């Protein structure tokens, strides 16, 4: 079960690394394709705001990748629980405040991984 949990953590971490990339470096290209509900003229003036959000997603990704370097299982699990909870809360908030799709793309993978991790303890 541990390997499955690590793979799921890796998937969530990679997803947030991708979000970092497109919010920080490709907001005016990938961002337009991803957030089709936003008027096109808003992408240039919101580039700095998107980059800030991308940086936060990078921190979430870094925290999840950090768990792979911690040799103590309890400590690693606790750090994973913290960062997965942060991702889930951010995704739930995003679903209420921006788009319901965010729940399925961001929160649900973190919640499934979190449940798996807690059940494996």
Explain what the structure shows:
This protein is mostly helical and 121 residues long. The chain has one domain (2-120). Helices cover 77% and strands 0% of the residues. The chain contains five helices and no strands. It has helices at 2-24, 30-34, 47-66, 73-97, 101-120. Helix 1 packs antiparallel against helix 3 (47-66) and helix 4 runs antiparallel to helix 5. The model has no long low-confidence stretch (mean pLDDT 95).
Name the features.
mainly alpha, 0% strand, single chain, 121 residues, elongated
Short synopsis of the structure:
The chain is mostly helical and 121 residues long.
User: In total, how many domains does the architecture comprise?
Assistant: 1
Helical/strand content category? mainly alpha
Helix % is over 70%
User: Termini distance?
Assistant: 10 Å
**Number of DSSP helical runs:** 5
DSSP, total strands: 0
Q: H/E element string?
A: HHHHH
Uncertain runs are none
Please give the largest β-sheet: none
Rg over C-alpha atoms, rounded to the nearest angstrom: 15 Å
The mean pLDDT is 95
The general outline is elongated
Strand content: under 5%
């Amino acid at each position: 079960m541990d390997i499955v949990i690590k793979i799921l953590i890796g998937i969530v971490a990679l997803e947030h690394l991708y979000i970092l990339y497109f919010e920080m470096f490709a907001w005016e290209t990938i961002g337009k394709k991803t957030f089709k509900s936003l008027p096109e003229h808003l992408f240039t003036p919101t580039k700095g705001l998107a980059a800030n959000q991308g940086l936060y997603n990078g921190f979430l990704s870094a925290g999840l990748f950090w768990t792979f370097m911690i040799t103590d299982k309890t400590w690693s699990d606790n750090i994973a629980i913290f960062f997965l909870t942060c991702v889930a809360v951010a995704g739930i908030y995003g679903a209420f405040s921006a788009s319901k799709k965010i729940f399925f793309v961001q929160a649900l993978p973190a919640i499934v991984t979190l449940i798996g991790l807690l059940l494996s303890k």
